[in-house]
Write a structure and sequence with these properties.
The protein is mostly helical. It has 2 domains: 83 residues, no CATH class; 48 residues. It has a two-stranded antiparallel ribbon with strand order 1-2. The radius of gyration is 23 Å and the shape is flat. Its main location: membrane. This is Cytochrome d ubiquinol oxidase subunit 2 domain-containing protein. It is a multi-pass membrane protein. InterPro entries: Cyt-d_oxidase_su2 (IPR003317).
Length: 132
């Protein structure tokens, strides 16, 4: 490993397909801004998700295989392979996820059903005894 200026951008010259990530970041942000001005709520949410995906992917792809690069000694950097868990830990997390994920999804669906709808001025100013 060699420390040099602009080394993180070397992945883009080796793998030219990775340029899609920053393009998604910029395009998603621009399109989300346009959709927000047009008051298109759902499409704004979709474009903002695309922007976030592009931004996070840009960082991950440009730094790969490093997660935490060391500025003092490149051999002391934390890489993807150094940060991975053991097979036993991964299996335990699989079992825990299989048990608790359906519970979380069911609770989230219940909360979504209970809190469905938008609050507007009419629902706030009526005299139905709610908390407003």
């Amino acid at each position: 490993m060699v420390i040099e200026n602009g080394a993180w951008l070397a992945n883009y010259s080796v793998h030219s397909w990775m340029i899609v990530a920053p393009i998604l970041g910029f395009a998603g942000a621009a399109l989300a801004s346009i959709a927000m001005r047009a008051r298109r709520e759902v499409i704004t949410l979709v474009f903002s998700k695309i922007a976030i995906l592009g931004i996070i992917s840009t960082v991950g792809l440009s730094m790969f295989p490093f997660i935490l690069p060391s500025s003092l000694d490149p051999r002391s950097s934390l890489t993807v392979w150094d940060a991975s868990s053991s097979h036993q830990t991964l299996f335990i997390m699989l079992v825990v996820s299989a048990i608790f994920l359906p519970i979380i999804v069911a609770y989230t669906a219940w909360v979504y059903k209970v809190l469905w709808g938008k609050v507007d001025e009419k629902s706030v100013t009526d005299k139905n005894g709610h908390a407003y």
